[in-house]
Sequence to fold (594 residues):
Amino acid sequence: MTRSGILGIALLAALALFAVAGPLVGPDPAFQGDLVRGTLLHPSAAHWLGTDQLARDIFARLAGGARVSLTIGLVAVLVAAAIGSMIGLAAGSLPGLAGRMVARCIDLGLALPRVVVLLVILAGVGEVPPLVLGTVLGATGWPAVARLVRGETMRLRHALFVGAAEALGAPPGRVVWREIFPGTLPAVLVASTLGLADAILLEAGLSFIGVGVRPPAPSWGNMIFEARDYLASAPWLLIAPCVALVVATSAATLLGDALRRSLQPDIR
Amino acid sequence: MTPLLEVSELHVSFPRTGAPALVPVDDVSFTIAPGELVALVGESGCGKTLTGLALPRLLPRGAELGPRTRVRLGGTDLTHLDERELRQYRGRRIGMVFQDPMTSLNPVMRVGDQIAEAIHAHEKVSRRDARARVLDLLVEVGIADPPARIDAYPHQLSGGMRQRILIAMALAAGPDLLVADEPTTALDVTVQAQILELLDRLRRSHGMAVLLITHDLGIVAGRADRVLVMYAGRIVESAPTGQLFAHPAHPYTRGLFASIPRLDAETTRLTPIRGNVPRPDQWPDGCRFNPRCPVAIARCLTERPPLDEVAPGQRAACWVAQADAR
Fold:
């Protein structure tokens, strides 16, 4: 593991700790300040990152947002990895027409613009809890994983050890599941780690335009949206969630790249 | 004794569009008796590997068997079975050991699990029973300290040990015939001898026949009961090992012996066979060895010599050798 990979892990761990323990060490997240004198306060000992236009503590909301972002991101990549792996394995291993049909379905999924599909779905169903939002994000993110797994499956199908297993009479299903599937996991792990950054960013974007996590629930995306109006008078409102977003996506990307470098040479 | 394996008119071709089909294995016939160790010897590209793969019908994509090809194993013709039926023969009746013990093992699976897979492919056994059998197999193939090795990954083992693992996989379902394709080529010379000794011992203890495919006549000497010499897609000579080494009949076989370094010979220069093995699309008419043959006669250029007896138990596809024998 490279140093940048360790940095990525450390940053993600710090964010996770922040999401879980932030409300415990910081001010009370349910704190509702004085709406006359408590709004848009500068960062201070009482409010480490200041307060917003509704006199809520930013540190507490940032921790709440971290919890939402990380949960949604993790659910999204798990769902995408599960669906994508199964479909990719099928596309790469089913013989003849069936395999080609599944591959075309992956192409179709890749061709649909993800944001537009998400907008249609989320605008249609209205407000959803974070777990459902993560599942919906994952359900639109599988084609990228599927394409990758299909490629790995097709490469591994021609590996000698797969031929050796077939030569000893292993049935096709067993060959795919026991010999090929484990070999695709490193690629899935790398893609999922990099996909985590995508999912977090996508969630923030959707929340920013109002179809993701909706106020009053905190999300880095809707915090950025609300901070827009106070850019000149209270910039800390904008800076805090933006920094959190940059840290989270950079950490996932650093870790993903490091994983790719350390895992990819091993799978021949 | 009825043969275990009876291959007749084995013909492997690769049809091409706009050109005549390539026929890297052309009319190969041989038999193997139960428990017999037969060596199939030839240079690279002579079709020996394809011959081995054709037995359980593991041919590469695009390859076709000829219409008259028959591969009978214990009386069943494998050429007419469908994939599902063939799987009952692969591993269960015909075990395969491949050349490269690194790439033939799954790098992300523990070796014990890979051997167990070969058992699970054919039998309903519990994990516990399979593991016990894997340990037995590891002992049998001479792995030191099996309880420690069973959970190792392939990269943690030496080349010789990996080859033993592959042999254990091939043995797992108790085949009657083991096809070993260049099982020692990737190994050190000392390890080569150990692996050959292992194969020899296993076939004696299991009564298992072995088809040993190799380019190396030297490793055949002490082990094989019979040797098949292959050249340009055909078998050119078939003889008991002792007879072949004492009196090679085909000029190609004699050429092979002349090109092996010997410690006991007077001469110090080797005599290579002149020319190169022709490519499958450039095989000459008549006897395919004729352009390189030191004793070729006119008939060799036009007429294909059949594989006929030249001495008791010894057959050679050579007009000259057959004329001398008469």
Remarks:
- The mean pLDDT of chain B is 88.
- Residues 148 and 199 of chain B are 23 Å apart (CA to CA).
- Chain B has twelve helices and 13 strands.
